């Protein structure tokens, strides 16, 4: 019943080509840093299937490959990090999914509703994420208490919370901003079915309430939140309305690389 969650990547080279990655696979941190950055710049985070009611979310690896690689769509954490984990596994890395809770902007303990990835190399653990619709590290973070790493233009910190829980934060002009917390214990892909169902179906799910699309860009990022398009660059921030469907579809295609045809199925 759940075999599709554990399938092999249909075409590793096709996936890497989608990310703009060429050359041999290197099982080291430098190659993984480049892979994560390329993923964040090539594959947008987006909840269009859920918010627009385009299609039910299918977490099978073959279905995810078709959506993200063949149709050049994006997805949210349960999709992007699932396909990313399958890629790592099939490239020979020791990696496993992990549960996370998004704490950014919250003054309470939220439920676990995010999927990340743990990678083990040379006896060390690293955290990687290509499916968070917000400020995420553009590379690996060593899971060591008090560790910090500057990735692109942001310094991220990891601190041990107790048990198997770790806290990820980033430096901002106003101080450290908590981003998320994750648990290093392995989680089985089948365990994300219920979490995905909540995010996809529950009326209180943020993914049902507002349109979200974002992608890292050279020197910044771009996003659609509701009917507003925002572009962050080294020169500042610019916003425009995408309330018009035609303008929005043009923006999705030209800025985020999501073809119009893929939103109708491909």
TrEMBL record:
The keyword Translocase does not apply. Keywords: Transferase. InterPro entries: Arylamine_N-AcTrfase, Papain-like_cys_pep_sf. Pfam families: Acetyltransf_2. GO terms for molecular function: acetyltransferase activity. The keyword Glycoprotein does not apply. Belongs to the arylamine N-acetyltransferase family. PANTHER family: ARYLAMINE N-ACETYLTRANSFERASE 4-RELATED, N-HYDROXYARYLAMINE O-ACETYLTRANSFERASE. This is N-hydroxyarylamine O-acetyltransferase. It comes from Eubacterium aggregans. The lineage of its organism: Bacteria, Bacillati, Bacillota, Clostridia, Eubacteriales.
